[in-house]
Amino acid sequence: MWDFSAYNPEREAAKYVGDKVASVEDALSGARDIFAERLSETASVRETLRETFRNRWLLCKATKAALSSPDAQKYKGYFDFKEPLQRMAPHRLLAVLRAADEGFLTLKIDADPERCASKMYYDLCKGRKYPSRALEEQIKEAIGDAYARLLAPSITTEVLKEFKEKADIESIKVFGENLRQLLLSPPVGQKRTLAIDPGFRNGCKTVCLDAQGNLLHHEIIFPHPPQNRKIEAMTRLYDMVEKYSIEAVAIGNGTASRETEQFVERTGLPENVKVYTVSEDGASIYSASEVAREEFPDEDVTVRGAVSIGRRLMDPLAELVKIDPKSLGVGQYQHDVDQGLLKEQLDNTVESCVNTVGVNLNTASPYLLRYVSGIGPALAGAIVQYRTDNGEFRKREELLSVPRLGAKAFQQCAGFLRIHGAENPLDNSAVHPESYPIVDKMASDLGVPVATLVGNAELCSKIVPQNYVGGETGLPTVNDIISELKKPGRDPRESAEEFSFSDDIHEIGDLVPGMELPGIVTNVTAFGAFVDIGIHENGLVHVSKMKKPGQKGMVDPSKVVKLHQKIKVVVLDVDLDRGRISLGLA
After folding, report:
1. Does residue 111 have a pLDDT over 80?
2. Looking at residue 573, what is its pLDDT?
3. 484 to each of 172, 340, 352, 443, 454, how far by Cα in Å?
4. Structural domains in the chain?
5. Is 485 exposed, middle or buried (0-12, 13-18, 19+ CB in 10 A)?
6. In degrees rounded to 5, what are phi and psi of residue 93?
């Protein structure tokens, strides 16, 4: 309880003057300090100020270091910037917080000190008046000191942390959705693949893979400057395609990608050999990882990176699970958000994608198996070891023979594991073994063997779902079983498509406003989508350019475009000095 009964503060302070307190002013100063400390710890006062700060503007100002640092130029748009906190987009808040951490911005919430002081006093006194002018001056001075020295910095930190937590959640959600789209990218499937990690001076690292992704051959060709050994490179490329019966070519999208794509097209490969551009993000991380060293102990990082590019084309999900999601280039300020929440979200996303697609039990790597529901790293290793020692799995029940894989783990994982060519066709479907008796009864009622029912949409359409509801089996489960029987083991991912950039565009200087160009979405954020148009700089389709005519309200970019989607864009503006390209949707 606050006591404001001291009519004459100086007379009260004089009582404390002695050995430890030299003067009345020292006594008053000490009393004000105690008052300020107590005030700064009062819960109701802090909450009143929090509510005030939440509804104010955030002011950003450039520091002296920013004005002289090239590294600060990416934050130039925030050098003199303000925006209401409540309306501040997550990506902008994370950007200014990062800039402040790097010493390029000072941040301040523009709360009015006088109004805040009045609210603080009212919160304390509940409308009571000061007993004297002298006490009023002391209290006002103590409140002002508490606000400026203790409360304003503390509440600013708390409120910014509160808004950052919300921004973290939103950014992590965007990251998770991008990761999902990346992992579920269309595969070309099991095709004999030639993969190229492009380069100029050090050449193009080239590998040949069989249909299972095993390394058959590797070498380096030099079709570009400064070596310019084009004829030799064409001959070697054509010979590799012939010798290893290549069906698809994967070209990394990094340095020299466009030039390599054009070189491959001029080589005159057989018509059945399709050429694809593949994202290199994270390939260098994989090539130097423990996983890569285990897979290719005798190869250097350049070979491992090229293999990763080829395998990504064949099955993006199976290859990308080996790489830390934060290295895949699809995040939004991923290093600034809560790392615990981010890891949880990304792990859940990977597991969800793996379980959605399903896993070939006889070809899956331990890195893919560990994300199957009910299987962790230890069981994944045990499954692969059992497969090595005993040969391919012939039926799902054989999983129960794997050391340490018990009935509970089997129940969780069995429905997500596929066995191609199994004796029981249901072992190559998403139907769980617990539901096999239901399928047996469906087939019996139709008078056909289970093998005849599986994959026969006409027969499946004759099944009456209500006839099989009972016990723990509800109607939704029965409908899911019937849907799976119609198309057993169907991969939910689309098929990969060929794609070519414009032949007329090679660098940013070739761009002119009004041009329409093909592009590939490389990242989707809350403020728009980045698009690769075939040059070194990606363009940005800002969220404001995604609205349809007459559309009102906010637009969610992830609802307009998808990661790796092939789209048409129009060039709106080109900033050569900053290397920025503004795009719109064509």
Report:
1. yes
2. 95
3. 32, 36, 18, 14, 9
4. 9-179 (1.10.3500.10), 193-314 (3.30.420.140), 342-486 (1.10.150.310), 508-585 (2.40.50.140)
5. buried
6. -65, -45
Report the C-alpha gap between 245 and 585 in whole angstroms. 40
Cβ pair 252, 197 in contact under 8 A: yes
Residue 564, classified by CB atoms within 10 Å of its CB into exposed (0-12), middle (13-18) or buried (19+), is buried
CA dihedral 114, 118, 120, 124 (to 10 degrees): 150
Of the candidates 367, 356, 495, the one whose C-alpha atom is nearest the C-alpha of residue 418 is 356
Residue 204 has pLDDT above 60, yes or no: yes
DSSP 502-540: -TT--SGGG--TT-EEEEEEEEEETTEEEEE-SSSSPEE
Q: What is the CA radius of gyration of the chain?
A: 33
pLDDT over 60 (residue 158)? yes
**Residue 188 to residue 174: CA distance in whole angstroms:** 26
What pLDDT digit, counting tens, does each position of 441-450 carry? 999 999 999 9
Q: Rounded CA gap, 368 and 366, in Å?
A: 5
Distance CA 74, CA 104 (A): 10
> Looking at residue 420, what DSSP letter applies?
T
- As a whole number of angstroms, the distance between CA 387 and CA 400 comes to 13
Could you give the 3-state DSSP secondary structure of residue 546?
coil
User: pLDDT per residue over 497-531, tens digit each?
Assistant: 888 888 888 889 999 999 999 999 999 998 899 99
Residue 128 pLDDT class (50, 70, 90 cuts): low
pLDDT given at position 200: 96
